[in-house]
Amino acid sequence: MHISIIAVDFDGTISQGDRLSPEAARVLHRWRENGQFTVLVSGRPFEFLHDLEKREQAFDLIVAENGAVLYNPRTDEMRLPFGKVPAGLLDTLVKLDVPLWRGIAIAGTTTHYDDAVWVASRELDLAVHVATNRDEVMLLPPGASKGAGVLNILASEGLSSRNLVAFGDAENDRSLLQIAEVKVAVANAVEGLKAIADHVTSEAGPAGVAAFIEHYLLDGRAFDFAVRGAHYFDLGAAGEIRLNAHDLVDRNVLIVGGSGSGKSWLASRLADGLIDGGYQLLALDPVGNLRALRRQATCLCLGGEEIPSMGLIVQLLAETDLSLALDLSRMHTPEEQILYMTGLMRRVLGVRQRFGKPHWILVDEAQDLLGGLDNPARLPLLQSLNGPGVCLVVWQPGRLDSALLHQMDGFLLTQHRLSREIECLSHLLANKGLDVTGLAERLGELGEGQVLAWGMISSQADALVPLRVSGGSRVFSEMYHPYQYLEKRVDRSRRFYFRDPAGQTVPAGNLGELIDRMHTLDLEVITFHFQRRDYSRWIRDVLHDETLARWVDRLQAADLSGESLRRALIEVFEQRYRVLARLV
User: Which of 68, 428, 473, 538 is most buried, by CB atoms within 10 Å?
Assistant: First the structure.
Protein backbone atom coordinates (compact mmCIF):
# COMPACT_ATOMS: atom_id res chain seq x y z
CA MET A 1 0.00 0.00 0.00
CA HIS A 2 1.36 3.40 -0.95
CA ILE A 3 -0.45 5.31 1.81
CA SER A 4 2.25 6.50 4.21
CA ILE A 5 0.97 9.85 5.56
CA ILE A 6 -1.97 10.48 7.90
CA ALA A 7 -3.29 14.05 8.08
CA VAL A 8 -5.94 14.52 10.73
CA ASP A 9 -8.10 17.35 12.02
CA PHE A 10 -8.23 17.84 15.80
CA ASP A 11 -11.56 19.10 17.17
CA GLY A 12 -14.36 16.60 16.65
CA THR A 13 -12.02 14.16 14.92
CA ILE A 14 -9.34 12.98 17.40
CA SER A 15 -9.97 15.28 20.36
CA GLN A 16 -11.20 14.52 23.85
CA GLY A 17 -11.90 17.99 25.14
CA ASP A 18 -8.63 19.88 24.74
CA ARG A 19 -6.55 16.70 24.73
CA LEU A 20 -5.72 14.00 22.21
CA SER A 21 -7.94 11.00 22.86
CA PRO A 22 -6.07 7.92 24.14
CA GLU A 23 -7.38 5.65 21.38
CA ALA A 24 -6.24 8.08 18.66
CA ALA A 25 -2.87 8.56 20.36
CA ARG A 26 -2.32 4.78 20.47
CA VAL A 27 -2.78 4.19 16.70
CA LEU A 28 -0.90 7.35 15.71
CA HIS A 29 2.11 6.28 17.77
CA ARG A 30 1.98 2.81 16.18
CA TRP A 31 1.87 4.39 12.72
CA ARG A 32 4.92 6.52 13.46
CA GLU A 33 6.79 3.54 14.90
CA ASN A 34 6.39 1.92 11.46
CA GLY A 35 8.34 4.82 9.95
CA GLN A 36 5.28 6.61 8.57
CA PHE A 37 4.23 10.26 8.88
CA THR A 38 1.48 11.98 10.86
CA VAL A 39 0.30 15.56 10.29
CA LEU A 40 -1.91 17.47 12.73
CA VAL A 41 -4.15 19.91 10.83
CA SER A 42 -6.32 22.32 12.81
CA GLY A 43 -7.86 25.77 12.92
CA ARG A 44 -6.67 26.14 16.52
CA PRO A 45 -4.00 28.74 17.38
CA PHE A 46 -0.42 27.61 16.97
CA GLU A 47 0.48 27.91 20.65
CA PHE A 48 -2.24 25.45 21.67
CA LEU A 49 -1.16 22.88 19.05
CA HIS A 50 2.51 23.37 19.89
CA ASP A 51 1.82 22.60 23.56
CA LEU A 52 -0.33 19.63 22.57
CA GLU A 53 2.49 18.12 20.49
CA LYS A 54 5.08 18.69 23.23
CA ARG A 55 2.83 16.75 25.56
CA GLU A 56 1.73 13.96 23.20
CA GLN A 57 4.66 13.66 20.73
CA ALA A 58 2.33 12.06 18.20
CA PHE A 59 2.92 14.23 15.12
CA ASP A 60 5.74 14.77 12.64
CA LEU A 61 4.32 18.00 11.23
CA ILE A 62 1.77 20.60 12.34
CA VAL A 63 -0.47 22.70 10.09
CA ALA A 64 -2.02 25.25 12.45
CA GLU A 65 -4.47 28.13 12.16
CA ASN A 66 -6.37 26.68 9.23
CA GLY A 67 -3.24 26.24 7.12
CA ALA A 68 -1.65 29.64 7.75
CA VAL A 69 1.06 28.42 10.17
CA LEU A 70 3.34 25.50 9.33
CA TYR A 71 5.62 23.89 11.89
CA ASN A 72 8.15 21.07 12.02
CA PRO A 73 8.63 19.91 15.65
CA ARG A 74 11.86 18.06 14.79
CA THR A 75 13.63 21.17 13.47
CA ASP A 76 11.59 23.69 15.50
CA GLU A 77 11.01 25.63 12.26
CA MET A 78 7.84 27.69 11.80
CA ARG A 79 6.73 29.29 8.52
CA LEU A 80 3.89 31.63 7.49
CA PRO A 81 3.71 31.01 3.72
CA PHE A 82 0.57 33.09 3.22
CA GLY A 83 1.41 35.98 5.54
CA LYS A 84 -0.87 37.37 8.25
CA VAL A 85 -4.30 38.97 8.49
CA PRO A 86 -3.79 42.77 8.20
CA ALA A 87 -3.47 44.41 11.60
CA GLY A 88 -5.56 47.36 10.37
CA LEU A 89 -8.59 45.12 9.92
CA LEU A 90 -8.23 43.62 13.40
CA ASP A 91 -7.86 47.09 14.97
CA THR A 92 -11.05 48.21 13.21
CA LEU A 93 -12.99 45.19 14.45
CA VAL A 94 -11.81 45.83 18.01
CA LYS A 95 -13.09 49.42 17.74
CA LEU A 96 -16.44 47.98 16.62
CA ASP A 97 -16.51 45.88 19.84
CA VAL A 98 -16.15 42.61 17.94
CA PRO A 99 -14.65 40.03 20.34
CA LEU A 100 -11.70 38.37 18.64
CA TRP A 101 -9.44 35.45 19.35
CA ARG A 102 -6.05 35.82 17.71
CA GLY A 103 -3.41 33.44 16.53
CA ILE A 104 -0.04 34.15 14.97
CA ALA A 105 -1.45 34.60 11.46
CA ILE A 106 -5.25 34.46 11.71
CA ALA A 107 -8.09 35.65 13.91
CA GLY A 108 -11.71 34.74 14.50
CA THR A 109 -14.98 35.48 16.19
CA THR A 110 -18.44 33.94 16.43
CA THR A 111 -20.96 33.94 13.60
CA HIS A 112 -22.97 36.51 15.61
CA TYR A 113 -20.52 39.11 14.30
CA ASP A 114 -20.21 37.89 10.72
CA ASP A 115 -21.91 40.98 9.25
CA ALA A 116 -19.43 43.30 10.95
CA VAL A 117 -16.52 41.21 9.70
CA TRP A 118 -17.75 41.19 6.10
CA VAL A 119 -18.50 44.92 6.04
CA ALA A 120 -15.17 45.91 7.60
CA SER A 121 -13.12 43.70 5.30
CA ARG A 122 -14.81 45.05 2.19
CA GLU A 123 -14.75 48.70 3.18
CA LEU A 124 -11.07 48.60 4.09
CA ASP A 125 -10.30 46.68 0.86
CA LEU A 126 -7.57 44.68 2.57
CA ALA A 127 -6.25 41.32 1.46
CA VAL A 128 -8.14 38.88 3.68
CA HIS A 129 -10.15 35.69 3.25
CA VAL A 130 -13.24 35.25 5.41
CA ALA A 131 -14.44 31.69 6.05
CA THR A 132 -17.22 30.21 8.18
CA ASN A 133 -16.72 27.01 10.15
CA ARG A 134 -19.64 25.77 12.27
CA ASP A 135 -20.27 28.66 14.74
CA GLU A 136 -17.07 30.58 13.96
CA VAL A 137 -16.03 33.22 11.44
CA MET A 138 -12.33 32.98 10.60
CA LEU A 139 -10.16 35.72 9.08
CA LEU A 140 -7.33 34.23 7.02
CA PRO A 141 -4.54 35.58 4.82
CA PRO A 142 -5.38 35.05 1.11
CA GLY A 143 -4.57 31.58 -0.13
CA ALA A 144 -4.57 29.99 3.32
CA SER A 145 -6.63 26.84 3.84
CA LYS A 146 -5.99 23.50 5.45
CA GLY A 147 -5.43 21.89 2.06
CA ALA A 148 -3.05 24.61 0.86
CA GLY A 149 -1.08 24.43 4.11
CA VAL A 150 -0.71 20.66 3.92
CA LEU A 151 0.43 20.78 0.29
CA ASN A 152 3.00 23.42 1.18
CA ILE A 153 4.48 21.57 4.14
CA LEU A 154 4.50 18.22 2.31
CA ALA A 155 6.40 19.79 -0.59
CA SER A 156 8.94 21.31 1.78
CA GLU A 157 9.54 17.86 3.31
CA GLY A 158 9.79 16.04 -0.04
CA LEU A 159 6.47 14.25 0.52
CA SER A 160 3.59 13.64 -1.89
CA SER A 161 -0.15 14.08 -1.38
CA ARG A 162 -0.58 10.86 -3.38
CA ASN A 163 0.53 9.07 -0.17
CA LEU A 164 -1.97 10.92 1.99
CA VAL A 165 -5.10 9.79 3.82
CA ALA A 166 -6.99 12.67 5.49
CA PHE A 167 -9.60 12.69 8.27
CA GLY A 168 -12.02 15.49 9.10
CA ASP A 169 -15.43 16.47 10.43
CA ALA A 170 -16.20 20.13 9.63
CA GLU A 171 -16.58 22.64 6.80
CA ASN A 172 -12.99 23.84 7.05
CA ASP A 173 -11.78 20.27 6.44
CA ARG A 174 -13.12 20.26 2.88
CA SER A 175 -9.90 21.58 1.34
CA LEU A 176 -7.91 19.04 3.37
CA LEU A 177 -9.92 16.11 2.07
CA GLN A 178 -9.90 17.47 -1.47
CA ILE A 179 -6.09 17.26 -1.78
CA ALA A 180 -5.81 13.79 -0.22
CA GLU A 181 -5.45 10.48 -2.03
CA VAL A 182 -8.01 8.90 0.34
CA LYS A 183 -10.70 11.04 1.97
CA VAL A 184 -12.30 9.94 5.26
CA ALA A 185 -15.09 11.69 7.16
CA VAL A 186 -15.94 10.64 10.71
CA ALA A 187 -19.52 9.64 11.52
CA ASN A 188 -20.20 12.98 13.25
CA ALA A 189 -19.02 15.05 10.24
CA VAL A 190 -21.22 17.62 8.55
CA GLU A 191 -23.17 16.30 5.58
CA GLY A 192 -21.22 18.39 3.08
CA LEU A 193 -17.98 16.69 4.09
CA LYS A 194 -19.52 13.23 4.04
CA ALA A 195 -20.66 13.93 0.47
CA ILE A 196 -17.07 14.26 -0.82
CA ALA A 197 -15.53 11.52 1.34
CA ASP A 198 -14.48 8.13 0.00
CA HIS A 199 -15.40 6.55 3.32
CA VAL A 200 -17.47 7.55 6.36
CA THR A 201 -16.52 5.81 9.60
CA SER A 202 -19.18 3.89 11.47
CA GLU A 203 -18.16 5.49 14.78
CA ALA A 204 -17.85 9.15 15.64
CA GLY A 205 -14.66 11.09 16.26
CA PRO A 206 -11.57 9.37 17.69
CA ALA A 207 -13.16 5.91 17.79
CA GLY A 208 -13.87 6.07 14.05
CA VAL A 209 -10.38 7.33 13.22
CA ALA A 210 -8.69 4.70 15.39
CA ALA A 211 -10.79 1.87 13.91
CA PHE A 212 -9.98 2.95 10.35
CA ILE A 213 -6.23 3.26 10.96
CA GLU A 214 -6.06 -0.07 12.76
CA HIS A 215 -8.20 -2.02 10.27
CA TYR A 216 -6.89 -0.68 6.96
CA LEU A 217 -3.49 0.88 7.58
CA LEU A 218 -1.85 -0.98 10.46
CA ASP A 219 -3.31 -4.39 9.57
CA GLY A 220 -2.68 -3.80 5.85
CA ARG A 221 -6.16 -4.68 4.61
CA ALA A 222 -7.16 -3.54 1.13
CA PHE A 223 -9.74 -0.77 0.93
CA ASP A 224 -13.23 -2.21 0.42
CA PHE A 225 -14.58 1.14 -0.78
CA ALA A 226 -14.03 3.10 -3.96
CA VAL A 227 -11.46 5.89 -4.03
CA ARG A 228 -13.63 8.25 -6.03
CA GLY A 229 -10.92 10.71 -7.02
CA ALA A 230 -8.75 8.01 -8.58
CA HIS A 231 -7.33 8.68 -12.03
CA TYR A 232 -8.55 6.24 -14.70
CA PHE A 233 -6.91 5.59 -18.06
CA ASP A 234 -7.05 3.01 -20.83
CA LEU A 235 -4.48 1.17 -22.90
CA GLY A 236 -4.94 3.18 -26.05
CA ALA A 237 -7.97 4.10 -28.13
CA ALA A 238 -9.48 0.61 -28.04
CA GLY A 239 -10.55 1.32 -24.45
CA GLU A 240 -11.48 -2.27 -23.59
CA ILE A 241 -10.10 -1.93 -20.07
CA ARG A 242 -10.03 1.09 -17.77
CA LEU A 243 -7.16 1.03 -15.30
CA ASN A 244 -7.36 2.66 -11.88
CA ALA A 245 -4.05 4.40 -11.16
CA HIS A 246 -4.68 4.31 -7.40
CA ASP A 247 -4.92 0.51 -7.51
CA LEU A 248 -2.25 -0.01 -10.17
CA VAL A 249 0.46 1.81 -8.24
CA ASP A 250 0.31 -0.91 -5.56
CA ARG A 251 0.50 -3.80 -8.04
CA ASN A 252 3.55 -5.70 -9.22
CA VAL A 253 3.06 -6.06 -12.97
CA LEU A 254 4.88 -8.41 -15.33
CA ILE A 255 4.81 -7.58 -19.06
CA VAL A 256 6.04 -10.47 -21.22
CA GLY A 257 6.42 -10.69 -24.99
CA GLY A 258 8.76 -11.39 -27.83
CA SER A 259 10.89 -8.77 -29.52
CA GLY A 260 8.86 -6.16 -31.38
CA SER A 261 5.57 -7.33 -29.83
CA GLY A 262 4.77 -3.98 -28.22
CA LYS A 263 5.66 -4.77 -24.61
CA SER A 264 7.70 -1.59 -24.15
CA TRP A 265 4.82 0.42 -25.62
CA LEU A 266 2.51 -1.13 -23.03
CA ALA A 267 4.99 -0.20 -20.30
CA SER A 268 5.11 3.38 -21.59
CA ARG A 269 1.31 3.53 -21.61
CA LEU A 270 1.12 2.37 -18.00
CA ALA A 271 3.79 4.91 -17.08
CA ASP A 272 1.88 7.68 -18.88
CA GLY A 273 -1.27 6.83 -16.95
CA LEU A 274 0.44 6.91 -13.58
CA ILE A 275 2.33 10.13 -14.31
CA ASP A 276 -0.90 11.76 -15.51
CA GLY A 277 -2.46 10.67 -12.21
CA GLY A 278 0.17 12.59 -10.24
CA TYR A 279 2.38 9.65 -9.23
CA GLN A 280 6.17 9.68 -9.33
CA LEU A 281 7.78 7.00 -11.49
CA LEU A 282 11.33 5.78 -11.93
CA ALA A 283 11.89 3.99 -15.25
CA LEU A 284 15.16 2.10 -15.84
CA ASP A 285 15.86 1.46 -19.49
CA PRO A 286 18.96 -0.48 -20.62
CA VAL A 287 18.26 -0.23 -24.38
CA GLY A 288 16.54 3.14 -24.93
CA ASN A 289 13.01 1.78 -25.45
CA LEU A 290 11.32 4.25 -23.09
CA ARG A 291 12.42 7.54 -24.64
CA ALA A 292 8.78 8.23 -25.50
CA LEU A 293 8.26 9.22 -21.85
CA ARG A 294 9.96 12.52 -22.65
CA ARG A 295 6.58 13.66 -23.96
CA GLN A 296 5.59 14.08 -20.31
CA ALA A 297 6.42 17.56 -19.03
CA THR A 298 6.80 16.10 -15.53
CA CYS A 299 9.13 13.28 -16.59
CA LEU A 300 12.81 14.04 -16.93
CA CYS A 301 14.75 11.75 -19.29
CA LEU A 302 18.37 11.32 -18.20
CA GLY A 303 21.27 9.21 -19.32
CA GLY A 304 22.14 8.34 -22.88
CA GLU A 305 25.43 10.08 -23.59
CA GLU A 306 26.15 10.90 -19.92
CA ILE A 307 24.93 8.73 -17.07
CA PRO A 308 23.91 10.88 -14.08
CA SER A 309 25.33 10.27 -10.64
CA MET A 310 23.29 8.20 -8.20
CA GLY A 311 23.31 11.19 -5.87
CA LEU A 312 21.54 13.33 -8.45
CA ILE A 313 18.89 10.66 -9.07
CA VAL A 314 18.23 10.30 -5.35
CA GLN A 315 18.07 14.07 -4.88
CA LEU A 316 15.57 14.54 -7.71
CA LEU A 317 13.32 11.76 -6.43
CA ALA A 318 13.44 13.01 -2.85
CA GLU A 319 13.13 16.75 -3.43
CA THR A 320 10.83 17.03 -6.47
CA ASP A 321 7.67 15.41 -7.81
CA LEU A 322 9.33 14.73 -11.17
CA SER A 323 9.30 11.24 -12.66
CA LEU A 324 12.60 10.03 -14.09
CA ALA A 325 13.38 7.85 -17.11
CA LEU A 326 16.99 6.69 -17.01
CA ASP A 327 18.56 5.56 -20.29
CA LEU A 328 21.47 3.18 -19.63
CA SER A 329 21.95 2.15 -23.26
CA ARG A 330 25.32 3.90 -23.66
CA MET A 331 27.01 2.06 -20.83
CA HIS A 332 29.89 0.01 -22.22
CA THR A 333 29.02 -3.44 -20.85
CA PRO A 334 26.07 -5.30 -19.28
CA GLU A 335 28.21 -5.76 -16.17
CA GLU A 336 28.55 -1.99 -15.87
CA GLN A 337 24.77 -1.64 -16.11
CA ILE A 338 24.23 -4.24 -13.39
CA LEU A 339 26.72 -2.62 -11.02
CA TYR A 340 25.09 0.78 -11.52
CA MET A 341 21.63 -0.76 -11.10
CA THR A 342 22.65 -2.50 -7.86
CA GLY A 343 23.94 0.65 -6.19
CA LEU A 344 21.09 2.79 -7.49
CA MET A 345 18.35 0.41 -6.35
CA ARG A 346 19.70 0.31 -2.80
CA ARG A 347 19.63 4.10 -2.60
CA VAL A 348 16.31 4.54 -4.39
CA LEU A 349 14.59 2.00 -2.17
CA GLY A 350 15.98 3.88 0.82
CA VAL A 351 14.31 7.04 -0.54
CA ARG A 352 11.08 5.09 -1.03
CA GLN A 353 11.14 3.81 2.55
CA ARG A 354 11.65 7.34 3.88
CA PHE A 355 9.42 9.39 1.57
CA GLY A 356 6.97 6.86 0.10
CA LYS A 357 8.17 7.57 -3.44
CA PRO A 358 8.92 6.89 -6.23
CA HIS A 359 5.48 5.34 -6.30
CA TRP A 360 6.32 2.87 -9.08
CA ILE A 361 9.57 1.45 -10.41
CA LEU A 362 9.57 0.28 -14.02
CA VAL A 363 12.43 -1.91 -15.29
CA ASP A 364 12.55 -2.52 -19.04
CA GLU A 365 14.39 -5.59 -20.36
CA ALA A 366 14.46 -6.81 -16.78
CA GLN A 367 16.08 -10.10 -17.72
CA ASP A 368 19.24 -8.10 -18.51
CA LEU A 369 19.24 -5.83 -15.45
CA LEU A 370 17.87 -8.31 -12.88
CA GLY A 371 18.31 -11.76 -14.42
CA GLY A 372 20.45 -14.53 -12.95
CA LEU A 373 20.69 -15.98 -9.45
CA ASP A 374 24.10 -14.34 -8.99
CA ASN A 375 22.83 -10.90 -10.02
CA PRO A 376 23.16 -8.56 -6.99
CA ALA A 377 20.73 -6.01 -8.48
CA ARG A 378 17.76 -8.27 -7.75
CA LEU A 379 18.37 -8.37 -3.99
CA PRO A 380 17.27 -4.82 -3.00
CA LEU A 381 14.10 -5.29 -5.05
CA LEU A 382 13.30 -8.64 -3.45
CA GLN A 383 13.46 -7.01 -0.04
CA SER A 384 10.98 -4.24 -0.96
CA LEU A 385 8.19 -5.97 -2.87
CA ASN A 386 5.72 -5.55 -0.01
CA GLY A 387 5.76 -1.80 -0.63
CA PRO A 388 4.43 0.19 -3.60
CA GLY A 389 4.55 -1.57 -6.95
CA VAL A 390 7.05 -2.42 -9.63
CA CYS A 391 6.70 -3.25 -13.31
CA LEU A 392 9.09 -5.70 -14.97
CA VAL A 393 9.21 -5.87 -18.77
CA VAL A 394 10.83 -9.06 -20.09
CA TRP A 395 11.04 -11.41 -23.03
CA GLN A 396 12.83 -14.09 -20.97
CA PRO A 397 10.92 -14.46 -17.68
CA GLY A 398 12.82 -17.70 -16.99
CA ARG A 399 15.99 -15.69 -16.29
CA LEU A 400 14.37 -13.88 -13.36
CA ASP A 401 14.53 -15.11 -9.77
CA SER A 402 11.42 -17.20 -9.07
CA ALA A 403 10.88 -15.23 -5.87
CA LEU A 404 10.52 -12.07 -7.98
CA LEU A 405 8.14 -13.77 -10.40
CA HIS A 406 5.88 -15.12 -7.67
CA GLN A 407 5.44 -11.59 -6.27
CA MET A 408 3.83 -10.47 -9.53
CA ASP A 409 0.06 -9.95 -9.28
CA GLY A 410 -0.70 -8.35 -12.65
CA PHE A 411 0.15 -9.68 -16.12
CA LEU A 412 0.13 -8.30 -19.68
CA LEU A 413 1.22 -10.85 -22.29
CA THR A 414 1.95 -10.07 -25.93
CA GLN A 415 2.92 -12.40 -28.76
CA HIS A 416 5.58 -14.93 -27.75
CA ARG A 417 6.77 -18.14 -29.41
CA LEU A 418 9.77 -19.22 -27.32
CA SER A 419 8.61 -22.51 -25.77
CA ARG A 420 10.97 -22.43 -22.78
CA GLU A 421 9.70 -18.99 -21.71
CA ILE A 422 6.07 -19.97 -22.31
CA GLU A 423 6.60 -22.99 -20.09
CA CYS A 424 7.92 -20.70 -17.34
CA LEU A 425 4.84 -18.50 -17.74
CA SER A 426 2.54 -21.51 -17.61
CA HIS A 427 3.96 -22.64 -14.24
CA LEU A 428 3.75 -19.10 -12.87
CA LEU A 429 0.14 -18.52 -13.95
CA ALA A 430 -0.98 -21.99 -12.87
CA ASN A 431 0.30 -21.19 -9.38
CA LYS A 432 -2.01 -18.16 -9.45
CA GLY A 433 -4.95 -20.49 -10.09
CA LEU A 434 -5.36 -19.71 -13.80
CA ASP A 435 -6.22 -22.21 -16.52
CA VAL A 436 -3.19 -22.27 -18.85
CA THR A 437 -4.50 -24.87 -21.28
CA GLY A 438 -3.40 -23.92 -24.80
CA LEU A 439 -1.34 -20.95 -23.60
CA ALA A 440 1.40 -21.51 -26.20
CA GLU A 441 -1.12 -21.45 -29.04
CA ARG A 442 -2.89 -18.38 -27.68
CA LEU A 443 0.34 -16.42 -27.32
CA GLY A 444 1.58 -17.48 -30.74
CA GLU A 445 -1.63 -16.34 -32.41
CA LEU A 446 -1.69 -12.85 -30.87
CA GLY A 447 -1.40 -10.14 -33.50
CA GLU A 448 -0.52 -6.47 -33.36
CA GLY A 449 -2.50 -4.68 -30.68
CA GLN A 450 -3.63 -7.92 -29.02
CA VAL A 451 -2.86 -8.75 -25.38
CA LEU A 452 -3.75 -11.35 -22.77
CA ALA A 453 -4.26 -9.74 -19.35
CA TRP A 454 -4.91 -10.76 -15.77
CA GLY A 455 -4.84 -8.97 -12.42
CA MET A 456 -4.86 -5.45 -13.83
CA ILE A 457 -8.20 -4.48 -12.25
CA SER A 458 -9.77 -5.29 -8.88
CA SER A 459 -12.65 -7.34 -10.31
CA GLN A 460 -10.30 -9.74 -12.05
CA ALA A 461 -11.47 -12.99 -13.65
CA ASP A 462 -9.94 -16.40 -13.01
CA ALA A 463 -8.61 -16.61 -16.57
CA LEU A 464 -6.47 -14.59 -18.95
CA VAL A 465 -8.63 -12.00 -20.70
CA PRO A 466 -7.98 -11.10 -24.36
CA LEU A 467 -7.79 -7.35 -25.00
CA ARG A 468 -7.26 -5.07 -27.95
CA VAL A 469 -4.99 -2.10 -27.39
CA SER A 470 -3.98 0.66 -29.75
CA GLY A 471 -0.24 0.71 -30.19
CA GLY A 472 1.48 1.83 -33.33
CA SER A 473 2.85 5.30 -33.93
CA ARG A 474 2.26 7.97 -31.34
CA VAL A 475 1.89 11.71 -31.66
CA PHE A 476 4.30 13.50 -29.37
CA SER A 477 4.11 17.05 -28.16
CA GLU A 478 7.05 19.31 -28.84
CA MET A 479 7.12 20.05 -25.10
CA TYR A 480 9.18 17.04 -24.16
CA HIS A 481 12.08 18.55 -22.26
CA PRO A 482 12.30 21.23 -19.55
CA TYR A 483 14.32 23.52 -21.85
CA GLN A 484 11.56 23.62 -24.46
CA TYR A 485 8.86 23.82 -21.82
CA LEU A 486 10.48 26.86 -20.21
CA GLU A 487 12.03 28.76 -23.10
CA LYS A 488 11.11 27.46 -26.56
CA ARG A 489 7.86 28.90 -27.91
CA VAL A 490 5.05 26.65 -29.04
CA ASP A 491 3.61 27.17 -32.52
CA ARG A 492 1.83 30.48 -33.02
CA SER A 493 -1.58 28.80 -33.23
CA ARG A 494 -1.11 27.18 -29.79
CA ARG A 495 0.11 30.20 -27.82
CA PHE A 496 -1.88 31.80 -25.01
CA TYR A 497 -3.80 34.79 -26.40
CA PHE A 498 -5.05 37.28 -23.84
CA ARG A 499 -8.43 39.00 -24.00
CA ASP A 500 -6.86 42.45 -24.06
CA PRO A 501 -9.28 45.11 -25.44
CA ALA A 502 -6.35 47.29 -26.47
CA GLY A 503 -4.67 44.40 -28.26
CA GLN A 504 -1.27 45.37 -26.85
CA THR A 505 -0.39 42.15 -24.98
CA VAL A 506 1.87 39.76 -26.87
CA PRO A 507 0.71 36.10 -26.63
CA ALA A 508 2.66 33.78 -24.32
CA GLY A 509 4.44 30.87 -25.98
CA ASN A 510 5.99 29.20 -22.91
CA LEU A 511 5.93 29.33 -19.12
CA GLY A 512 8.61 32.02 -18.93
CA GLU A 513 6.59 34.36 -21.15
CA LEU A 514 3.40 33.65 -19.21
CA ILE A 515 5.16 34.77 -16.02
CA ASP A 516 6.37 37.96 -17.73
CA ARG A 517 2.85 38.83 -18.92
CA MET A 518 1.40 38.31 -15.42
CA HIS A 519 3.46 41.19 -14.02
CA THR A 520 1.97 43.82 -16.36
CA LEU A 521 -1.46 42.47 -17.40
CA ASP A 522 -4.58 44.43 -16.47
CA LEU A 523 -6.28 42.80 -13.48
CA GLU A 524 -9.55 42.47 -15.40
CA VAL A 525 -7.77 40.39 -18.06
CA ILE A 526 -6.12 38.18 -15.43
CA THR A 527 -9.44 37.64 -13.65
CA PHE A 528 -11.31 36.92 -16.89
CA HIS A 529 -8.99 34.07 -17.87
CA PHE A 530 -8.74 32.76 -14.31
CA GLN A 531 -12.51 32.50 -13.88
CA ARG A 532 -12.75 30.63 -17.18
CA ARG A 533 -9.92 28.29 -16.10
CA ASP A 534 -8.01 29.26 -19.25
CA TYR A 535 -4.59 29.12 -17.55
CA SER A 536 -4.90 25.56 -16.27
CA ARG A 537 -6.50 24.41 -19.54
CA TRP A 538 -3.60 25.81 -21.62
CA ILE A 539 -0.97 24.43 -19.24
CA ARG A 540 -2.61 20.99 -19.30
CA ASP A 541 -3.45 20.79 -23.02
CA VAL A 542 -0.49 22.63 -24.59
CA LEU A 543 2.39 22.40 -22.09
CA HIS A 544 1.25 18.98 -20.82
CA ASP A 545 2.18 19.84 -17.24
CA GLU A 546 -0.56 18.17 -15.19
CA THR A 547 1.18 19.05 -11.92
CA LEU A 548 1.17 22.80 -12.58
CA ALA A 549 -2.37 22.64 -13.97
CA ARG A 550 -3.57 21.04 -10.72
CA TRP A 551 -1.77 23.75 -8.71
CA VAL A 552 -3.61 26.45 -10.65
CA ASP A 553 -6.94 24.62 -10.32
CA ARG A 554 -6.54 24.57 -6.53
CA LEU A 555 -6.41 28.39 -6.46
CA GLN A 556 -10.05 28.40 -7.59
CA ALA A 557 -11.12 27.47 -4.06
CA ALA A 558 -9.12 30.29 -2.45
CA ASP A 559 -11.56 33.14 -3.28
CA LEU A 560 -8.78 35.33 -4.68
CA SER A 561 -9.21 38.60 -6.55
CA GLY A 562 -7.30 41.71 -7.58
CA GLU A 563 -3.62 41.92 -6.74
CA SER A 564 -3.93 38.91 -4.44
CA LEU A 565 -4.87 36.80 -7.45
CA ARG A 566 -1.99 38.21 -9.51
CA ARG A 567 0.53 37.46 -6.74
CA ALA A 568 -0.83 33.94 -6.19
CA LEU A 569 -0.59 33.06 -9.89
CA ILE A 570 2.91 34.49 -10.23
CA GLU A 571 4.06 32.57 -7.14
CA VAL A 572 2.67 29.28 -8.47
CA PHE A 573 4.16 29.79 -11.95
CA GLU A 574 7.56 30.88 -10.60
CA GLN A 575 7.73 27.99 -8.14
CA ARG A 576 7.22 25.51 -10.98
CA TYR A 577 9.71 27.39 -13.17
CA ARG A 578 12.39 27.24 -10.47
CA VAL A 579 11.97 23.49 -10.02
CA LEU A 580 12.35 22.77 -13.74
CA ALA A 581 15.01 25.41 -14.37
CA ARG A 582 17.36 23.59 -12.00
CA LEU A 583 17.18 20.60 -14.32
CA VAL A 584 17.95 22.31 -17.62
Answer: 68
Domain range for 326: 232-468
Residues 417 and 565 in one domain: no
Residues in the chain: 584
- What are the helix and strand counts (H, E) for the chain? 23, 25
Task: Report if residue 21 sits inside a domain.
Answer: yes
Q: Are residues 41 and 104 in the same domain?
A: no
Residue-averaged pLDDT of the chain:
88
Q: pTM of the prediction?
A: 0.77
Band (pLDDT 50/70/90 cuts) for residue 380 is confident
Which of the four pLDDT bands, split at 50, 70 and 90, describes residue 473?
Answer: very low
Distance from C-alpha of 361 to C-alpha of 380, rounded to nearest angstrom: 12
Residues whose CB is less than 8 angstroms from the CB of residue 442 and which lie 6 or more positions away in sequence, other chains included: 452, 464
Range with the lowest mean pLDDT among 68-82, 158-172, 190-204, 489-503? 489-503
Rounded CA separation 569/551 (Å): 9
- Higher-scoring residue by pLDDT: 236, 190: 190
Mean pLDDT of the region 500-528:
88
Q: Give the end-to-end CA distance of the chain in Å, rounded to a whole number.
A: 34
H or E element that contains 327 = strand 323-327
Full DSSP string of 146-214: HHHHHHHHHHHTT--GGGEEEEE-SGGGHHHHHTSSEEEE-TTS-HHHHHH-SEE-SS-HHHHHHHHII
Task: Give CA–CA dist 175/29, Å, rounded.
Answer: 25
CATH number of the domain that residue 1 is part of: 3.40.50.1000
For residues 227 and 165, what is the distance between their CA atoms, to the nearest angstrom?
11
Q: Is 474 inside any structural domain? A: no
Q: CA-CA distance, 489 to 484, in Å (whole number)?
A: 7
CB atoms within 10 A of CB 226: 12
DSSP structure string for 40-99? EE-SS-HHHHHHHHHHH---SEEEEGGGTEEEETTTTEEE-TT----HHHHHHHHHTT--
Q: Is residue 473 part of a domain?
A: no
**For residue 466, cis peptide bond before it (omega within 30 degrees of 0):** no
